[in-house]
User: Which sequence fits this backbone?
């Protein structure tokens, strides 16, 4: 199994005592599978994505990626995980202002030692960014920046794509096109996608759905 999340817990300190944001969450995600993560604001969706992406540590439970429990990883191993295995698309796009769109797209793949200009061009075409390749992030609209961030993540060919509302800033048609591209690319690359979305419509297009409520997965 590509991703195996077992009984993960995470507690944050709150004004009225500790808050059990995740109170024992378990699920699996295999190669080629897509999973929509839904739940009310504050239900712990971003927290869960951060844990799977190795950006934060759970208080309990195990997160196995390709059979290896990442919860015991040190900082170096977690950085390697994000460089080589897991790709994240968060709500902040974190594009590099001094690099043009083409170089932003290529950045992560180059960092991971997997540069592939043909794949980058294909991604730019699929995400409608061909005309923007020479531009800099500040010259782009929010939706264009979001598509560059998605292209950059997919360019590195991660086995697991984690996306936190990746189409949140986009109009309906563009959101649909971006999801089309992500699903197709995940399918072609045999990767897996875990995507937070508030859109029931987009969630319905994913292979399965995980609904978080009160720290647990609701049936
Ligand atoms: N670093 C932190 N310290 C303390 N509390 C936190 C921290 N990060 C998140 N929380 C709390 O944990 C809960 C879950 O937050 P999280 O961002 O995971 O929710 P979410 O489901 O992604 O929400 P949204 O849909 O609004 O993005 C919230 O109550 C939040 O205030």
Assistant:
């Amino acid at each position: 199994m590509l991703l195996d999340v077992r009984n993960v817990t995470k507690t944050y300190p709150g004004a009225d005592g500790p808050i059990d944001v995740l109170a024992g969450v378990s699920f699996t995600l295999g190669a080629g599978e897509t999973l929509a993560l839904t739940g009310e604001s504050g239900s712990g969706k971003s927290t869960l994505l951060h844990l799977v992406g190795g950006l934060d540590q759970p208080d309990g439970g195990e997160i196995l990626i390709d059979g290896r429990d990442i919860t015991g990883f040190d900082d170096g191993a977690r950085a390697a995980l994000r460089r080589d295995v897991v790709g994240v698309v968060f709500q902040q796009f974190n594009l590099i202002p001094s690099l043009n769109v083409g170089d932003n797209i290529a950045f992560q793949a180059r960092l991971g030692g997997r540069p592939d200009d043909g794949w980058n061009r294909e991604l730019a075409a699929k995400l409608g960014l061909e005309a923007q390749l020479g531009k800099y992030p500040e010259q782009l609209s929010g939706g264009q920046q979001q598509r560059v961030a998605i292209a950059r993540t997919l360019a590195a060919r991660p086995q697991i794509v984690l996306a936190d509302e990746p189409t949140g800033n986009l109009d309906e048609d563009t959101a649909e096109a971006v999801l089309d591209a992500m699903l197709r690319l995940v399918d072609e690359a045999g990767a897996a996608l875990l995507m937070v979305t508030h859109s029931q419509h987009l969630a319905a297009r994913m292979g399965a759905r995980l609904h978080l409520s009160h720290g647990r997965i609701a049936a």
The radius of gyration is 17 Å. The helical segments are 45-52, 75-84, 101-111, 117-126, 142-155, 172-189, 200-204.
